[in-house]
Amino acid sequence: MELLERRRALIEERLVEVVDDLEPDALRAEVEHTALAGGKRVRPMVTVLACETVGGTAEDAVDFGVGIELVHAASLVVDDIIDRSELRRGTTSAWAEFGYGPAIVSSDGLLGEAFALFSSDPDATRVVAEAMVELGIGEATELSAEPETEAEYMTLARRKTGALFRAAAELGAIAAGSDAVTVEALGEYAERVGVAFQIRDDVLDAIADPDELGKPTGHDAALERPSVVQVTDLTPDEANARARAESDRAIEALDRVEVADPTARNYLVELAEFVVEREQ
C-alpha cells in the first residue's frame, strides 16, 4: 500500500505542477478548483500501473496519467453543466462556483494542457482522440437516443466511461514501449473495469447517501438519464452482479499480458475488484 501511495503522490505532484503553470490567474484558479478538488485518481493510476506491469516505470507514465486525469476532469465540468449539478467531489461544481462561461473555458483549458502532455507521442494523441470521439458519441446518445435494452446500455457505458479507462491503460502500455497486442489486452482490461465502474456508479446513484457519496444522488431518475436501474429490469443486486462479471472478464484480459512487475499487476487486479465494491 505504501508503494501505491507513492505512485499517487507522484501523480498529485505532477498535476499541481501542470496547473500551477497556467495563465492567466483566473484560468488557473478555475482549473485548480476542478482538477485539484480531490478524486480517486483512478485513471492516472491505471496508466502508471499498466506501464509498470509491462516493464516501464511510474516516471515514464506520469505525464500521460496526468493528461488523462485532465481529460476526465474536463468531461466532468461539462457533465455538471448538462445535469445542473451543483456538487462535485464534495465541493461546488465549476459552473456553480464560477458561472457557465468560466466553467466552459476551464474545460477548454484542461483539455489544452492534457494534449500538451500527450503531444510527445503521436500514438498517445491518437489513443486519447479516439477515446474522446467515443465519449462524445456516448454523451450525445445519453441525451438524445436513450438505450432501451441492457445491450444498448452496455454499449453506452463502454463509450461513456469505458473509453477513457481504455485510453488510460493503453497510454501506460505506450509509455512502456509495448507492442500492439499488449496495448490491446491492457485496453480491454481497463474498458471492462470502466463499464463495471459505470454500472456500480448507477447503482450508487439510486441507493447511496449523497453525503457519503460526495455528490447528489437520484439524478439519473430525476433527469430521466439512462442508468442500469432505469433502462433494465435489474435490481441493484443483479446490476452489481453484472458489474462483477465485467470485473472478472477484465482480470481475464490481464492474463494475456506478459508481466514484468507482478506487484503492479496485482494492483490492477485489486482495482478491478474495488470498482464493484466501492461505496463512493
TrEMBL record:
PROSITE patterns: POLYPRENYL_SYNTHASE_1, POLYPRENYL_SYNTHASE_2. Keywords: Isoprene biosynthesis, Magnesium, Metal-binding, Transferase. Its cofactor is Mg(2+). InterPro entries: Isoprenoid_synthase_dom_sf (IPR008949), Polyprenyl_synt (IPR000092), Polyprenyl_synt_CS (IPR033749). The keyword Metal-binding applies. Coiled coil: none annotated. Pfam families: polyprenyl_synt. One of its GO terms (molecular function) is prenyltransferase activity. One of its GO terms (biological process) is isoprenoid biosynthetic process. Belongs to the FPP/GGPP synthase family. This is Polyprenyl synthetase. It comes from Haloterrigena turkmenica (strain ATCC 51198 / DSM 5511 / JCM 9101 / NCIMB 13204 / VKM B-1734 / 4k).
